[in-house]
Protein backbone atom coordinates (compact mmCIF):
# COMPACT_ATOMS: atom_id res chain seq x y z
CA UNK A 1 0.00 0.00 0.00
CA UNK A 2 1.22 3.53 -0.62
CA UNK A 3 3.06 4.99 2.36
CA UNK A 4 1.97 8.59 2.35
CA UNK A 5 -1.21 8.39 4.35
CA UNK A 6 -0.04 9.21 7.83
CA UNK A 7 -1.64 12.62 7.64
CA UNK A 8 -5.07 11.38 6.76
CA UNK A 9 -4.79 8.76 9.50
CA UNK A 10 -4.34 11.48 12.04
CA UNK A 11 -7.20 13.43 10.60
CA UNK A 12 -9.77 10.65 10.54
CA UNK A 13 -11.95 11.67 13.41
CA UNK A 14 -14.37 9.61 15.43
CA UNK A 15 -15.90 12.58 17.21
CA UNK A 16 -17.51 13.94 14.06
CA UNK A 17 -18.87 10.54 13.05
CA UNK A 18 -21.09 10.38 16.12
CA UNK A 19 -23.36 13.15 14.86
CA UNK A 20 -22.84 13.04 11.13
CA UNK A 21 -26.26 13.41 9.46
CA UNK A 22 -27.74 10.30 7.90
CA UNK A 23 -25.20 7.75 9.10
CA UNK A 24 -27.82 6.24 11.39
CA UNK A 25 -30.76 6.40 8.97
CA UNK A 26 -30.34 2.65 8.32
CA UNK A 27 -31.48 1.93 11.86
CA UNK A 28 -35.10 2.62 10.96
CA UNK A 29 -35.05 0.66 7.69
CA UNK A 30 -35.73 -3.02 7.02
CA UNK A 31 -32.62 -5.06 7.73
CA UNK A 32 -31.89 -8.75 7.33
CA UNK A 33 -29.18 -11.24 8.24
CA UNK A 34 -28.28 -9.54 11.56
CA UNK A 35 -27.36 -11.47 14.72
CA UNK A 36 -29.50 -11.70 17.87
CA UNK A 37 -26.85 -10.95 20.47
CA UNK A 38 -27.38 -12.94 23.61
CA UNK A 39 -26.05 -10.32 26.05
CA UNK A 40 -27.02 -6.64 25.69
CA UNK A 41 -24.25 -5.40 28.01
CA UNK A 42 -21.54 -7.18 26.06
CA UNK A 43 -22.99 -5.77 22.85
CA UNK A 44 -23.00 -2.18 24.18
CA UNK A 45 -19.45 -2.52 25.51
CA UNK A 46 -18.21 -3.97 22.21
CA UNK A 47 -19.71 -1.17 20.14
CA UNK A 48 -18.20 1.38 22.51
CA UNK A 49 -14.77 -0.23 22.11
CA UNK A 50 -15.01 -0.34 18.35
CA UNK A 51 -16.08 3.29 18.21
CA UNK A 52 -12.88 4.43 19.88
CA UNK A 53 -10.37 2.05 18.26
CA UNK A 54 -8.14 3.37 15.46
CA UNK A 55 -9.26 2.99 11.85
CA UNK A 56 -7.99 -0.13 10.07
CA UNK A 57 -7.53 1.67 6.77
CA UNK A 58 -6.96 5.29 5.95
CA UNK A 59 -9.09 7.59 3.82
CA UNK A 60 -6.20 8.34 1.47
CA UNK A 61 -5.73 4.66 0.65
CA UNK A 62 -9.43 4.32 0.01
CA UNK A 63 -9.25 7.25 -2.41
CA UNK A 64 -6.32 5.66 -4.22
CA UNK A 65 -8.35 2.48 -4.65
CA UNK A 66 -11.32 4.44 -6.03
CA UNK A 67 -8.96 5.87 -8.64
CA UNK A 68 -7.64 2.43 -9.54
CA UNK A 69 -11.15 1.03 -9.90
CA UNK A 70 -12.05 3.99 -12.11
CA UNK A 71 -9.22 2.89 -14.40
CA UNK A 72 -10.65 -0.63 -14.46
CA UNK A 73 -14.13 0.73 -15.24
CA UNK A 74 -12.54 2.47 -18.23
CA UNK A 75 -10.84 -0.70 -19.48
CA UNK A 76 -7.35 0.28 -18.34
CA UNK A 77 -6.91 -2.17 -15.44
CA UNK A 78 -8.37 -5.43 -14.13
CA UNK A 79 -9.55 -6.20 -10.59
CA UNK A 80 -8.52 -9.48 -8.99
CA UNK A 81 -10.44 -9.96 -5.75
CA UNK A 82 -9.98 -13.21 -3.88
CA UNK A 83 -9.92 -14.98 -0.56
CA UNK A 84 -11.87 -17.20 1.77
CA UNK A 85 -15.64 -17.37 1.78
CA UNK A 86 -15.36 -16.97 5.54
CA UNK A 87 -12.10 -16.10 7.26
CA UNK A 88 -11.69 -17.64 10.70
CA UNK A 89 -9.84 -16.37 13.75
CA UNK A 90 -7.87 -19.63 14.03
CA UNK A 91 -6.63 -19.48 10.45
CA UNK A 92 -5.26 -15.94 10.80
CA UNK A 93 -1.72 -17.34 10.99
CA UNK A 94 1.37 -16.15 9.15
CA UNK A 95 1.52 -19.32 7.03
CA UNK A 96 -2.08 -19.25 5.92
CA UNK A 97 -2.11 -15.53 5.23
CA UNK A 98 1.16 -15.64 3.30
CA UNK A 99 -0.04 -18.59 1.19
CA UNK A 100 -3.14 -16.65 0.22
CA UNK A 101 -1.27 -13.43 -0.51
CA UNK A 102 1.33 -15.35 -2.55
CA UNK A 103 -1.39 -17.07 -4.55
CA UNK A 104 -3.06 -13.74 -5.33
CA UNK A 105 0.32 -12.27 -6.32
CA UNK A 106 0.96 -15.26 -8.59
CA UNK A 107 -2.47 -14.98 -10.20
CA UNK A 108 -1.89 -11.27 -10.70
CA UNK A 109 1.47 -11.90 -12.37
CA UNK A 110 -0.09 -14.42 -14.73
CA UNK A 111 -2.85 -11.96 -15.63
CA UNK A 112 -0.59 -8.94 -15.92
CA UNK A 113 1.95 -10.77 -18.06
CA UNK A 114 -0.67 -12.39 -20.27
CA UNK A 115 -2.77 -9.29 -20.84
CA UNK A 116 -0.23 -6.46 -20.38
CA UNK A 117 -2.71 -4.76 -18.11
CA UNK A 118 -2.28 -3.51 -14.53
CA UNK A 119 -4.02 -5.81 -12.06
CA UNK A 120 -5.55 -4.36 -8.89
CA UNK A 121 -4.95 -6.87 -6.08
CA UNK A 122 -7.62 -7.12 -3.45
CA UNK A 123 -8.13 -9.72 -0.73
CA UNK A 124 -11.42 -10.95 0.62
CA UNK A 125 -9.26 -10.64 3.69
CA UNK A 126 -8.80 -8.79 6.98
CA UNK A 127 -12.52 -8.49 7.73
CA UNK A 128 -14.44 -11.26 5.92
CA UNK A 129 -15.84 -12.66 9.16
CA UNK A 130 -19.64 -12.39 8.83
CA UNK A 131 -21.83 -14.60 6.65
CA UNK A 132 -25.40 -14.28 5.40
CA UNK A 133 -27.10 -17.69 5.50
CA UNK A 134 -30.03 -19.27 3.68
CA UNK A 135 -31.33 -20.71 6.91
CA UNK A 136 -31.21 -19.49 10.51
CA UNK A 137 -30.68 -23.02 11.73
CA UNK A 138 -28.63 -26.11 11.07
CA UNK A 139 -29.71 -29.64 11.95
CA UNK A 140 -27.25 -32.50 12.47
CA UNK A 141 -28.36 -35.97 13.58
CA UNK A 142 -31.68 -34.62 14.81
CA UNK A 143 -30.12 -31.75 16.79
CA UNK A 144 -31.01 -28.21 15.65
CA UNK A 145 -28.83 -25.20 16.52
CA UNK A 146 -28.37 -21.67 15.16
CA UNK A 147 -26.51 -21.64 11.84
CA UNK A 148 -22.88 -20.60 11.79
CA UNK A 149 -22.77 -16.92 10.73
CA UNK A 150 -19.05 -16.26 10.65
CA UNK A 151 -16.50 -15.92 13.43
CA UNK A 152 -17.63 -12.34 14.03
CA UNK A 153 -20.97 -13.73 15.28
CA UNK A 154 -20.58 -17.30 16.56
CA UNK A 155 -18.34 -20.37 16.51
CA UNK A 156 -18.35 -23.20 13.96
CA UNK A 157 -18.35 -25.95 16.62
CA UNK A 158 -21.74 -27.59 16.73
CA UNK A 159 -22.62 -26.93 20.38
CA UNK A 160 -25.21 -24.57 21.89
CA UNK A 161 -22.44 -22.55 23.60
CA UNK A 162 -20.46 -22.06 20.42
CA UNK A 163 -23.47 -21.23 18.24
CA UNK A 164 -24.81 -18.50 20.56
CA UNK A 165 -24.36 -14.97 19.14
CA UNK A 166 -21.57 -13.39 21.17
CA UNK A 167 -20.94 -9.66 20.59
CA UNK A 168 -17.43 -9.79 22.07
CA UNK A 169 -16.55 -11.47 18.76
CA UNK A 170 -17.00 -8.09 17.04
CA UNK A 171 -13.95 -6.79 18.88
CA UNK A 172 -11.99 -9.96 18.20
CA UNK A 173 -12.84 -9.59 14.50
CA UNK A 174 -11.42 -6.06 14.59
CA UNK A 175 -8.16 -7.18 16.21
CA UNK A 176 -7.80 -10.18 13.91
CA UNK A 177 -8.38 -7.91 10.92
CA UNK A 178 -5.75 -5.52 12.27
CA UNK A 179 -3.11 -8.23 12.63
CA UNK A 180 -3.97 -9.72 9.23
CA UNK A 181 -3.71 -6.33 7.58
CA UNK A 182 -0.46 -5.64 9.37
CA UNK A 183 1.05 -8.78 7.91
CA UNK A 184 -0.33 -8.03 4.45
CA UNK A 185 1.21 -4.56 4.60
CA UNK A 186 4.52 -6.04 5.73
CA UNK A 187 4.50 -8.62 2.94
CA UNK A 188 3.51 -6.27 0.17
CA UNK A 189 5.70 -3.32 1.23
CA UNK A 190 8.63 -5.08 2.88
CA UNK A 191 10.17 -7.05 0.04
CA UNK A 192 8.07 -10.23 -0.16
CA UNK A 193 6.12 -8.88 -3.15
CA UNK A 194 9.27 -7.86 -5.03
CA UNK A 195 8.74 -9.05 -8.58
CA UNK A 196 12.27 -10.44 -8.54
CA UNK A 197 10.91 -13.07 -6.15
CA UNK A 198 8.46 -14.25 -8.77
CA UNK A 199 9.98 -17.77 -8.60
CA UNK A 200 10.08 -17.81 -4.86
CA UNK A 201 6.29 -17.40 -4.57
CA UNK A 202 5.91 -20.84 -6.11
CA UNK A 203 8.06 -22.55 -3.48
CA UNK A 204 6.41 -24.84 -1.00
CA UNK A 205 3.33 -25.47 -3.12
CA UNK A 206 2.85 -28.98 -4.42
CA UNK A 207 4.21 -29.80 -7.87
CA UNK A 208 1.39 -29.83 -10.40
CA UNK A 209 0.69 -28.75 -14.00
CA UNK A 210 -0.18 -25.15 -13.10
CA UNK A 211 2.94 -24.95 -10.95
CA UNK A 212 5.11 -26.02 -13.88
CA UNK A 213 3.46 -23.57 -16.24
CA UNK A 214 3.95 -20.81 -13.69
CA UNK A 215 7.66 -21.68 -13.37
CA UNK A 216 8.14 -21.21 -17.07
CA UNK A 217 6.32 -17.86 -17.06
CA UNK A 218 8.37 -16.76 -14.04
CA UNK A 219 11.50 -17.62 -16.05
CA UNK A 220 10.37 -15.27 -18.82
CA UNK A 221 9.70 -12.49 -16.33
CA UNK A 222 13.13 -13.07 -14.75
CA UNK A 223 14.81 -12.74 -18.10
CA UNK A 224 12.88 -9.54 -18.88
CA UNK A 225 13.88 -8.05 -15.52
CA UNK A 226 17.53 -9.02 -15.96
CA UNK A 227 17.50 -7.46 -19.41
CA UNK A 228 16.05 -4.21 -18.07
CA UNK A 229 18.51 -4.18 -15.17
CA UNK A 230 21.37 -4.69 -17.58
CA UNK A 231 20.07 -1.64 -19.42
CA UNK A 232 20.48 0.31 -16.20
CA UNK A 233 16.83 0.66 -15.16
CA UNK A 234 16.14 1.05 -11.47
CA UNK A 235 13.11 -0.99 -10.57
CA UNK A 236 11.74 0.73 -7.49
CA UNK A 237 8.18 0.10 -8.68
CA UNK A 238 8.78 -3.66 -8.78
CA UNK A 239 9.78 -3.89 -5.14
CA UNK A 240 6.38 -3.44 -3.58
CA UNK A 241 2.80 -3.62 -4.58
CA UNK A 242 -0.53 -2.16 -3.60
CA UNK A 243 -2.88 -4.63 -1.98
CA UNK A 244 -6.35 -3.70 -0.79
CA UNK A 245 -8.65 -5.29 1.79
CA UNK A 246 -12.33 -5.98 1.23
CA UNK A 247 -15.25 -7.79 2.83
CA UNK A 248 -19.03 -7.99 2.73
CA UNK A 249 -20.48 -5.14 4.80
CA UNK A 250 -23.01 -7.34 6.54
CA UNK A 251 -23.07 -6.38 10.23
CA UNK A 252 -24.01 -2.74 10.14
CA UNK A 253 -23.36 -2.17 13.84
CA UNK A 254 -19.73 -3.11 13.22
CA UNK A 255 -19.45 -1.00 10.07
CA UNK A 256 -21.11 1.99 11.67
CA UNK A 257 -18.86 1.86 14.74
CA UNK A 258 -15.78 1.89 12.50
CA UNK A 259 -16.98 4.78 10.34
CA UNK A 260 -14.88 7.93 10.70
CA UNK A 261 -14.97 11.44 9.28
CA UNK A 262 -12.03 12.47 7.11
CA UNK A 263 -11.24 16.03 8.08
CA UNK A 264 -9.59 16.78 4.72
CA UNK A 265 -12.96 16.52 3.10
CA UNK A 266 -15.49 16.16 5.92
CA UNK A 267 -16.72 12.91 4.35
CA UNK A 268 -17.49 9.67 6.19
CA UNK A 269 -15.36 6.61 5.40
CA UNK A 270 -15.96 3.05 6.51
CA UNK A 271 -12.53 2.25 7.92
CA UNK A 272 -12.98 -1.52 8.39
CA UNK A 273 -11.65 -2.15 4.86
CA UNK A 274 -10.88 -0.33 1.64
CA UNK A 275 -13.72 -1.82 -0.39
CA UNK A 276 -17.02 -3.09 0.98
CA UNK A 277 -19.73 -4.91 -0.87
CA UNK A 278 -23.42 -5.55 -0.35
CA UNK A 279 -24.43 -9.19 -0.73
CA UNK A 280 -27.10 -10.66 -2.98
CA UNK A 281 -29.29 -11.29 0.07
CA UNK A 282 -29.16 -7.72 1.44
CA UNK A 283 -29.22 -5.51 -1.66
CA UNK A 284 -32.92 -4.53 -1.54
CA UNK A 285 -33.24 -0.90 -2.62
CA UNK A 286 -34.92 0.42 0.51
CA UNK A 287 -32.93 -1.69 2.89
CA UNK A 288 -30.59 -0.66 5.67
CA UNK A 289 -27.54 -2.00 3.83
CA UNK A 290 -28.07 0.01 0.67
CA UNK A 291 -28.83 3.14 2.70
CA UNK A 292 -25.74 2.86 4.89
CA UNK A 293 -23.32 2.12 2.07
CA UNK A 294 -24.78 5.01 0.05
CA UNK A 295 -23.42 7.36 2.74
CA UNK A 296 -19.75 6.37 2.92
CA UNK A 297 -17.10 7.46 0.43
CA UNK A 298 -15.49 4.06 -0.06
CA UNK A 299 -15.73 2.35 -3.40
CA UNK A 300 -18.49 -0.20 -2.99
CA UNK A 301 -19.73 -3.30 -4.71
CA UNK A 302 -23.11 -4.96 -5.07
CA UNK A 303 -23.57 -8.64 -5.85
CA UNK A 304 -26.14 -9.22 -8.58
CA UNK A 305 -27.74 -12.63 -8.95
CA UNK A 306 -29.80 -14.03 -11.85
CA UNK A 307 -33.07 -12.44 -10.72
CA UNK A 308 -31.71 -8.88 -11.01
CA UNK A 309 -33.61 -6.77 -13.52
CA UNK A 310 -32.20 -3.87 -15.50
CA UNK A 311 -34.43 -1.54 -13.49
CA UNK A 312 -33.06 -2.94 -10.22
CA UNK A 313 -29.57 -2.14 -11.45
CA UNK A 314 -30.51 1.40 -12.49
CA UNK A 315 -32.18 2.11 -9.16
CA UNK A 316 -29.11 0.84 -7.32
CA UNK A 317 -26.94 3.16 -9.40
CA UNK A 318 -29.20 6.14 -8.61
CA UNK A 319 -28.96 5.41 -4.92
CA UNK A 320 -25.32 4.34 -4.61
CA UNK A 321 -23.62 6.33 -7.36
CA UNK A 322 -25.85 9.37 -8.02
CA UNK A 323 -22.91 11.35 -9.41
CA UNK A 324 -21.93 8.57 -11.84
CA UNK A 325 -18.38 8.60 -10.58
CA UNK A 326 -16.19 5.92 -12.21
CA UNK A 327 -14.64 3.73 -9.50
CA UNK A 328 -17.42 4.33 -6.99
CA UNK A 329 -19.65 1.40 -7.92
CA UNK A 330 -18.77 -2.15 -8.89
CA UNK A 331 -21.40 -4.66 -9.97
CA UNK A 332 -20.28 -8.17 -9.12
CA UNK A 333 -22.44 -10.50 -11.17
CA UNK A 334 -22.96 -14.08 -9.95
CA UNK A 335 -25.47 -15.50 -12.36
CA UNK A 336 -24.42 -19.14 -12.61
CA UNK A 337 -22.81 -20.69 -15.68
CA UNK A 338 -26.20 -21.81 -16.95
CA UNK A 339 -27.65 -18.28 -16.82
CA UNK A 340 -24.94 -15.80 -17.57
CA UNK A 341 -25.14 -15.75 -21.36
CA UNK A 342 -28.90 -15.30 -21.20
CA UNK A 343 -29.25 -12.89 -18.24
CA UNK A 344 -26.20 -10.65 -18.27
CA UNK A 345 -26.54 -8.93 -21.68
CA UNK A 346 -29.80 -7.11 -20.92
CA UNK A 347 -28.43 -5.91 -17.60
CA UNK A 348 -25.20 -4.57 -19.05
CA UNK A 349 -27.02 -3.01 -21.99
CA UNK A 350 -29.49 -1.18 -19.78
CA UNK A 351 -26.74 0.18 -17.52
CA UNK A 352 -24.62 1.22 -20.50
CA UNK A 353 -27.57 2.96 -22.16
CA UNK A 354 -28.15 4.95 -18.98
CA UNK A 355 -24.69 6.50 -19.28
CA UNK A 356 -23.45 5.08 -15.98
CA UNK A 357 -19.91 3.75 -15.93
CA UNK A 358 -19.85 0.96 -13.38
CA UNK A 359 -17.08 -1.61 -13.07
CA UNK A 360 -18.29 -5.07 -14.11
CA UNK A 361 -16.78 -7.97 -12.20
CA UNK A 362 -17.60 -11.66 -12.38
CA UNK A 363 -18.07 -13.82 -9.30
CA UNK A 364 -18.15 -17.27 -10.90
CA UNK A 365 -18.52 -19.03 -7.56
CA UNK A 366 -21.85 -18.21 -5.93
CA UNK A 367 -24.14 -19.10 -8.82
CA UNK A 368 -22.52 -22.51 -9.22
CA UNK A 369 -22.81 -24.14 -5.80
CA UNK A 370 -24.00 -27.76 -5.76
CA UNK A 371 -24.00 -30.61 -3.26
CA UNK A 372 -21.70 -33.52 -4.07
CA UNK A 373 -23.19 -37.04 -3.99
CA UNK A 374 -21.32 -37.58 -0.71
CA UNK A 375 -22.94 -34.50 0.83
CA UNK A 376 -20.38 -31.67 0.57
CA UNK A 377 -21.13 -28.15 -0.62
CA UNK A 378 -18.98 -27.86 -3.73
CA UNK A 379 -18.50 -26.26 -7.16
CA UNK A 380 -17.27 -27.80 -10.36
CA UNK A 381 -14.15 -26.12 -11.69
CA UNK A 382 -15.57 -26.43 -15.20
CA UNK A 383 -18.74 -24.53 -14.24
CA UNK A 384 -16.67 -21.79 -12.62
CA UNK A 385 -14.56 -21.44 -15.76
CA UNK A 386 -17.64 -21.57 -17.96
CA UNK A 387 -19.19 -18.63 -16.11
CA UNK A 388 -15.97 -16.63 -16.51
CA UNK A 389 -15.95 -17.42 -20.22
CA UNK A 390 -19.59 -16.40 -20.49
CA UNK A 391 -18.78 -13.13 -18.74
CA UNK A 392 -16.03 -12.33 -21.26
CA UNK A 393 -18.22 -13.37 -24.20
CA UNK A 394 -21.12 -11.16 -23.11
CA UNK A 395 -18.91 -8.13 -22.66
CA UNK A 396 -17.17 -8.76 -25.93
CA UNK A 397 -20.53 -8.97 -27.67
CA UNK A 398 -21.64 -5.64 -26.20
CA UNK A 399 -18.34 -3.80 -26.54
CA UNK A 400 -18.11 -3.28 -22.78
CA UNK A 401 -15.15 -4.11 -20.56
CA UNK A 402 -15.02 -7.23 -18.37
CA UNK A 403 -13.22 -5.46 -15.55
CA UNK A 404 -12.53 -8.03 -12.89
CA UNK A 405 -12.93 -11.36 -11.20
CA UNK A 406 -14.06 -12.15 -7.65
CA UNK A 407 -13.17 -15.63 -6.41
CA UNK A 408 -13.30 -17.73 -3.29
CA UNK A 409 -9.82 -19.23 -3.11
CA UNK A 410 -7.05 -20.17 -0.76
CA UNK A 411 -3.31 -20.76 -0.98
CA UNK A 412 -3.66 -24.14 0.69
CA UNK A 413 -3.92 -27.55 -0.92
CA UNK A 414 -7.51 -28.13 0.08
CA UNK A 415 -10.08 -30.25 -1.75
CA UNK A 416 -13.34 -28.31 -1.90
CA UNK A 417 -14.07 -27.66 -5.59
CA UNK A 418 -14.29 -30.59 -8.02
CA UNK A 419 -12.03 -30.92 -11.05
CA UNK A 420 -9.09 -28.94 -12.36
CA UNK A 421 -6.06 -30.15 -14.32
CA UNK A 422 -4.95 -32.35 -11.42
CA UNK A 423 -8.56 -33.26 -10.66
CA UNK A 424 -10.02 -33.11 -7.17
CA UNK A 425 -12.66 -35.80 -6.68
CA UNK A 426 -15.26 -36.10 -3.96
CA UNK A 427 -13.27 -38.74 -2.05
CA UNK A 428 -10.65 -36.06 -1.34
CA UNK A 429 -13.30 -34.04 0.53
CA UNK A 430 -13.14 -36.60 3.33
CA UNK A 431 -9.63 -35.50 4.30
CA UNK A 432 -8.97 -32.10 2.71
CA UNK A 433 -12.24 -30.13 2.98
CA UNK A 434 -11.58 -27.28 5.41
CA UNK A 435 -13.94 -24.43 4.53
CA UNK A 436 -16.45 -23.45 7.20
CA UNK A 437 -18.78 -22.01 4.57
CA UNK A 438 -18.42 -22.14 0.79
CA UNK A 439 -15.92 -24.25 -1.20
CA UNK A 440 -12.77 -22.47 -2.39
CA UNK A 441 -10.43 -23.00 -5.30
CA UNK A 442 -7.18 -24.43 -3.98
CA UNK A 443 -3.76 -23.06 -4.89
CA UNK A 444 -3.44 -24.96 -8.09
CA UNK A 445 -7.01 -24.41 -9.27
CA UNK A 446 -6.54 -20.68 -8.61
CA UNK A 447 -3.40 -20.53 -10.73
CA UNK A 448 -5.00 -22.60 -13.43
CA UNK A 449 -7.90 -20.21 -13.53
CA UNK A 450 -5.54 -17.25 -13.86
CA UNK A 451 -3.91 -18.90 -16.90
CA UNK A 452 -7.29 -19.57 -18.49
CA UNK A 453 -8.48 -16.02 -17.89
CA UNK A 454 -5.29 -14.29 -19.02
CA UNK A 455 -5.91 -15.26 -22.65
CA UNK A 456 -9.46 -13.94 -22.61
CA UNK A 457 -8.31 -10.78 -20.88
CA UNK A 458 -5.57 -10.20 -23.44
CA UNK A 459 -8.23 -10.30 -26.14
CA UNK A 460 -10.62 -8.00 -24.25
CA UNK A 461 -7.98 -5.37 -23.55
CA UNK A 462 -6.75 -5.12 -27.11
O1 LIG B 1 -21.00 -17.06 1.02
C1 LIG B 1 -22.16 -16.91 0.71
C2 LIG B 1 -23.23 -17.31 1.60
O2 LIG B 1 -22.97 -16.94 2.91
C3 LIG B 1 -23.32 -18.77 1.53
O3 LIG B 1 -23.29 -19.16 0.19
C4 LIG B 1 -24.60 -19.15 2.19
O4 LIG B 1 -24.61 -20.48 2.26
P1 LIG B 1 -25.87 -21.31 2.76
O5 LIG B 1 -26.82 -21.38 1.63
O6 LIG B 1 -25.25 -22.63 3.12
O7 LIG B 1 -26.43 -20.62 3.96
C1 LIG C 1 -22.36 -14.19 0.47
C2 LIG C 1 -21.62 -14.11 -0.61
O1 LIG C 1 -22.06 -13.99 -1.85
P1 LIG C 1 -23.49 -13.62 -2.41
O2 LIG C 1 -23.95 -12.41 -1.66
O3 LIG C 1 -23.20 -13.34 -3.83
O4 LIG C 1 -24.36 -14.80 -2.21
C3 LIG C 1 -20.15 -14.16 -0.59
O5 LIG C 1 -19.52 -13.51 -1.42
O6 LIG C 1 -19.59 -14.90 0.24
MN1 LIG D 1 -19.34 -17.54 -0.19
From TrEMBL:
Q: Which molecular function term from Gene Ontology is one that the record holds?
A: 3-deoxy-7-phosphoheptulonate synthase activity
Q: Which cofactor does it need?
A: Mn(2+); Co(2+); Cd(2+)
Q: Which InterPro entries match?
A: Aldolase_TIM, DAHP_synth_2
| Biological-process GO terms, alphabetical | amino acid biosynthetic process; aromatic amino acid family biosynthetic process; chorismate biosynthetic process
**SUPFAM superfamilies in the record, alphabetically?**
Aldolase
Catalytic activity from the UniProt record: D-erythrose 4-phosphate + phosphoenolpyruvate + H2O = 7-phospho-2-dehydro-3-deoxy-D-arabino-heptonate + phosphate
EC annotation? 2.5.1.54
Report the domain of life of the source organism: Bacteria
Q: Where does Mn(2+) bind?
A: 85, 366, 408, 438
* Protein name as it appears in the record: Phospho-2-dehydro-3-deoxyheptonate aldolase
To which species is this protein native?
A: Psychromicrobium lacuslunae
Amino acid sequence: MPNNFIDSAARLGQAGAANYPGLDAWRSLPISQQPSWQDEDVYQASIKDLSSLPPLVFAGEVDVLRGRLAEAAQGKAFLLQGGDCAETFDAATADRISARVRTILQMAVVLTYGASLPVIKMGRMAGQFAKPRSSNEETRDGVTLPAYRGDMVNGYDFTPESRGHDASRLVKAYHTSASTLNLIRAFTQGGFADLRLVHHWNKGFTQNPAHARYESLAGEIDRAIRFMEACGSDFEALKRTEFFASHEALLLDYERALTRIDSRTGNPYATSGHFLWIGERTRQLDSAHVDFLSRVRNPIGVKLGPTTSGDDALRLIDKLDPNREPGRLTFITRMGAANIREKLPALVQKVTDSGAQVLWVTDPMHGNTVTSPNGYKTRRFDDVIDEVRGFFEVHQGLGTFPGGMHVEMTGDDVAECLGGADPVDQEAFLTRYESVCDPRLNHMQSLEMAFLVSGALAQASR
